[in-house]
Design goal:
It comes from Streptomyces parvulus. The chain is an all-alpha fold. The protein is built from three helices and no strands. The radius of gyration is 16 Å and the shape is elongated.
Length: 89
Amino acid sequence: MLLEALSAAILGLALAWAAVHRLPHRLPARVLVLPTGVAGALFGAFVTHTALGAGGLLLVLLGSAALSAASLSLLLRPAGRLRRSSATA
């Protein structure tokens, strides 16, 4: 269980670091993004471990990566300005 939690935390940190370096203009401050990735990965590992039980490290890491990516996606801002249609009446 400790190995799962440590692996999930490292995976979440790596995903958050990659997001910060890949999309710095669309994310808030690094101080918010990095802990969000780690917390999402740990929660994903907890949920996956609870649902599947012990013994599936790869499946737990897959679940933690999915929830970490989902929580990081909630921090994304739109790329450009939102355009309004001129045809609205």
